[in-house]
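Task: sequence in, structure out. Protein: BMERB domain containing 1.
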Amino acid sequence: MPEEIELEMAKIQRLREVLVRRESELRFMMDDIQLCKDIMNLKQELQNLVAIPEKEKTKMQKQREDELIQKIHKLVQKRDFLVDDAEVERLREQEEDKEMAEFLRIKLKPLDKVTRSPASEFNI
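Result:
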């Protein structure tokens, strides 16, 4: 009986971990989408400025071009960091999954012996 309770607690903990992971994945996707939108908006503004012949650009327009390039660069770096962080998290989760599978395998073996009836051992 205590083994069954312990196993049930492990299953509940595992479910909680899966839900926390999913929430984390969704947050990553939302951040990624927002960064991509921001980058696209800045690129569009930059394209509009680049389309103006160099001789016709004001000093402010040239400064804005430089500003936009810097902002885009920072956002791309931020997105790269986010993607790298997500990959590290994915690898960590894979390792946790292996550990949990091994834990449950070890915990389930003794229960198999306890829950089997003598008749099932003889295929009756």
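Residues 26 and 32 are 10 Å apart (CA to CA).
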